[in-house]
Design a protein that fits this description.
3 strands; 54% helix
Length: 128
């Protein structure tokens, strides 16, 4: 049985376009919910920070602080020179290892040179 390649390509393109259309509609439909969730996360995090606590258990679940690190290389040469000179191989993957850089900053009081380093707190919620 011969395949009508033109017909199959047309079907493929139509299906791909339909999936993109449906994904876009889905993204638009859930955006208000994601925005509301982001705002609630901010309220929860502000409460935890104001109370100077890491977590609070409620009848509906536990809200807790979670910290994520980000370390992007600003100056590749400076960062790599530092890693090589100090044989600090744990600071690198294919990119700067954010957790290792955070540990290094905690231990030495300084982040390795050549990085844009930041940390951000988020609030997580576990179901009761």
């Amino acid at each position: 049985m011969a395949v009508d390649l033109g017909k199959r390509v047309a079907q493929y393109v139509a299906l791909r376009d339909k999936i993109r259309e449906m994904n876009k509609a889905h993204e638009e439909a859930i955006k208000p919910y994601e925005d509301a969730l982001f705002q609630l996360n901010s309220v929860l995090l502000q409460h935890l920070t104001a109370q100077n606590v890491e977590s609070v258990k409620t009848e509906f679940g536990t809200v807790y602080k979670s910290r994520r690190y980000s370390a992007s290389i600003q100056d590749v040469e400076a960062f790599w020179d530092y890693v090589v000179q100090n044989q600090a191989w744990e600071l690198v993957d294919k990119r700067a290892n954010a957790n290792a850089c955070a540990d290094h900053a905690t231990q030495t009081g300084n982040t390795p040179p050549g990085l844009n380093f930041s940390s951000i707190y988020t609030a997580g919620v576990r179901r009761a």
